[in-house]
Structures are given as structure tokens and as C-alpha cells.
Amino acid sequence: MQNVAQVMDFNSIEEQPALKKRGRIQIDNVSLVFGTGKQANIAVQETSLDIEPGEFVCILGPSGCGKSTLLNSVAGYVTPTTGEVLVDGEPVVEPGPDRGMVFQQYSLLPWKTTFDNIALGPSLCGDVEATRTAEYFLDMVGLTKYRNHYPAELSGGMQQRVGIARALATNPSVLLMDEPFGALDAQTRLVMQESLLEVWSEFGTTVLFVTHDVDESVFLADRIIVMSASPGKVVAEFDNPLPRPRSPDMSTRKDYIEIKQKCLEVIRSESLRAFELQNA
Amino acid sequence: MFTQWLKRDNNQRFAISLGSVATMFGAWVFVTETGLANPLFLPGPKAIYLAFIDCLFEGYQGSTLVEHVGTSLYRILAAFLLACLVGIPLGIAMGMSKTAHAIFNPFIEFYRPLPPLGLYTLLVMWLGIGESSKLALLFLAGLPGIIIATVQAVKDINPTFVLATKSLGASRMELIREVYLPGAGPTILTGMRISLGFVYTVLVAAEIVAATAGIGWMIWDAAKFLLSDIVIMGLIILGLTGIALDMIMRFIGYALMPWTRATRKFSKT
To answer: Which residues in B lie closer than 8 A to residue A124 (C-beta atoms)?
Structure first.
């Protein structure tokens, strides 16, 4: 993902300050309940969040805490039982290209090549320069050599880079990421995290990033939202003091260790509480 | 590309198949030449060959062999293509919508196990003894397999593909074009191959009534006179055309769905 700055020639984001302001996410008192009666399962309970345009927010929590469900409500895949989600003031009612989504894995269309996967969004959105847009994002993620490869022919890390390029190619105001690096090995994950920060600093798109990895959230986020399970709700919120640009060697800094510890404490006490609940 | 497709199979397996066919042929020659088999019921390869040459140049009951084969292939292909044109869109609709499934499924499940001859008597009463009742029977034989395969294929599509494509701004029709159709493609092709087999199985039944040409009719007519050489020759031709059509379909699938031949170049992560 090098040379991002050099290939940014046709982009006009800097010339359109309004674009920079896009991407406010307001989650207003959202509950998500699946099933009815005795089988009702409260995945997310009365959660409110405000995310500023251009902010990088991580939702951190154990599996089953409803963090993905909350993300899916922003994507428009599920409708909140109560409350509503607003993106740039517009209520979310269905999925749309203004909210780019990156999934954990296996979400590229296997019957399309790298290039066609990236070009699909722009062409569906009526981008008259879909080919050029796709070309640009293909180059941005450094996969020009693999343009005619099918997803099955790419490594997991390459597939996720295509996933990110595809999500960005429709010029979304927010980027939603659901444990995108969870299936990658540790080394690849680190490289991908750095690449993501590079891309993000270039585009300034709001990012809402779901993970269960404390280090990942500390390395990436401006703000870390910690959620707990049964019922899924926000239990803590931390502003990340770590300066940017970030690099992997920051993980030995005092402020890194401090915020990591804060997150771990909350997670540990919540896990113990959940454990006691189960055994009560 | 065609030679590439032919070569994709491993040569060893081809050799084994060739060997098993040759063994069977040898056994056939053996039992007929040694007089172990009654030539009235099982004529030897030579008698079959002579019957073939005779039908090819002299014809059988007023039509040449080419006419018989051509008539039957036309019926099979016309009915089968119609079954695909109806079955694939219907299957996609039924796979995508529970309501569409609930509307159409009872009828398909009801008529599917009905014996073709039983169905044919009714079709003859409705459509007459001409070509349309024959085509209708062949069409109905081919339809369920295509529909069932398509419905299952659509249901098996990874829901993440649908969500991801919706997030890129796809409408319902665009989802069908970009996700459902290609995603279901390989399974639809399998359904088509099985369905073509079903169309073949009812060919004789469809050509019993008021036909003057067709391989199925030729077999049926020859059986009445115990002309077992013609019967066996007809069956061999039917079998060979079936294999040829199946190969054509597999090749079309190979050409239209290049991603199915994509091979992993990296480890999983």
C-alpha cells in the first residue's frame, strides 16, 4: 500500500471540504431483540453512541456481546427493535453504498476477479468512470498484479485488501468493519492494520471497527467502546491518547500499556460477572 | 479451450474407463460368438453394425436413421431448452422468495413422481396426438430437476455475498444478475445434466403414440417384431447422443464459469 499519495492524482477530496464532513453516525437508544416471549434474546440493549465525521472508533467486546449486531444495524442489515440509527442525519433503513462494509472473510464474490469485485460497487452506483475508479483502488491496495485473479487464488490478506478496496470504491461516508482481520495470522494482521491506518489517513472516512482484540483496538482507534454480553451494552468508553501516526513499536509505550490495561480490567470484570451469572 | 477442457481430466482415469468399456465389449463379443447367448435376444456387435448400416442407408419404416435421430434430438432439445428457460427463473424466484416457493412447490412435488405414461394419456387428450403432447411430456420430465437444483443452489448461496452486494447498491434485479445466477450456476448445471437424463428416459413413452419417426418410436416399433438388433442399435445411439449432449453441457459450463477452475495459490490465511 505504498505510494498512496502519489496515486491520489484524480481524487478531489481535498477540493471538496464538504466531503470531509461526511460520516457522522448517531446510534440513538438502539435495542435489538431477536425472538419473542420467553425465547427473546436481547442482543443489544438501549445503546447510544455518537461518532464524529472522520473518527476511528473501535467497538471492543467478547463474542456474543452484540457488537456485530450493532454494526449490522448501522449497515442496515437488521432493523433496531427500538431507537434508530442516523448516518449524516438520515435514518438507516436498508443497506446502501454510503456505508461501506468489510466482513470477516469469504465475502468477495468468487465468480468475479479482483478487478471486477472492486469495480462492481462503482458500476452499480452509476459511476461513469467505474473502470478508472476500480483501477485506482486496485493500485491503492497494491494488487495490480492480481487484477485477473479470482478470490480463491488470493491469500487471506490479499482478499481483505480487495474487501477494503471494494468497500471504499463507492466513496462511502463511513466504513464499517466487522472483525476484518480476525481470520488472518498475527503477522499479516499487523501489516493489514498499518495499511488500514494509511488508507484511513488518506481518505479520512469515518471508521467503525468491531474487534475482540484489545491490542488491535488500541493500535487503531481514536476511541474505544467496550461492550459486554447478556445483555449486550456499552460498559466503558476510552479516548485513546496514543499519538498518530502510529507504528507497531508503540506497543511498549507507557500510554499504550495504560489504556490497554484499562480495557483489560473492564473486560475481565465483565467476564467474571458473566461467568457468575452462568453458574448462578 | 476445448482441448484444454478435454485434457483437464487425468489420463489415468480415462485409461481405466477405456479399459472397463473394452472389457464389457469383449464379454459381449465372447458370449455372442460362442453361442452362449441366444441371438434372438442378444445379437452380436456385427449384427448391430449391420442393422446400423441398413437403417442408415435403407431407413427403418419409411424414415432414414438420420431422420429418426434428428426428430428425436429436436424433440429432446426443444423440450429441454424450454424446461431450462422456465425452470431456472422459476427456481431462482422460488429460492429467493418463500411465498413463491409455497405457491409453486405443491404442484411440482405432486406431478413429479407421476408415471410418464399416465401423464401422457392426459396430455394426449388435452393436446392431441401431434407434436405438442410429445414436447409437453418431455418438457414436464425435464422441469422438476432443474427447478429443484436451482432452488437449492439459490438457498445455499452464502448470505454474506448478498449482504455485501446490497451494500454496494445493488437492486433486486442486479442481485439476481451479480449474485444469485452466477452463485447458483454450478449447481444449476448439475441439475440440467440430471434433467436431460430424465428427458431421455421418457423419450420412448413420448414417441409411442402416433409417431412415424424418432429413435424412441423406432425402438418401440422394432420390439414389436422382436428385432433386437434394431432395438439395441437404437439404445446405443440414444446413449451416445446422451453422452455427447452431456459433454457439450459440461463444456459450456466450463467456458461460462471460469472461476470454478480457479485453484488455490496461497495457504488459507
So the answer is: 165, 168-170, 174, 178
Q: Which are the contacts of A7, defined by CB distance < 8 A and separation ≥ 6?
A: A136, A139, A140
A261–chain B Cβ distance below 8 A for any pair: no
- Comparing alpha-carbon positions, the chain B residue that sits nearest to A102 is B164
A219-261 confidence digits (pLDDT tens): 999 999 999 887 888 999 999 999 999 998 998 999 999 999 9
Structural domain contains residue A196 = yes
Residues 92-111 of chain A whose Cβ lies under 8 A from any Cβ of chain B: 94-97, 99-101, 103, 106-111
Q: Looking at this predicted complex, what is its ipTM?
A: 0.88
- State which residues form the domain around A60: 8-98+172-279
- β-strand partners of A83: none
CATH of the domain at B237: 1.10.3720.10
pLDDT single digits (tens) A77-99: 999 999 999 999 999 999 999 99
- CATH code of the domain containing A70: 3.40.50.300
Write down the pTM of the prediction.
Answer: 0.86
Beta bridge partners of A49: A27
Contact by Cβ (8 Å): B127, B140? no
Asked if residue B214 is part of any domain, the answer here is: yes
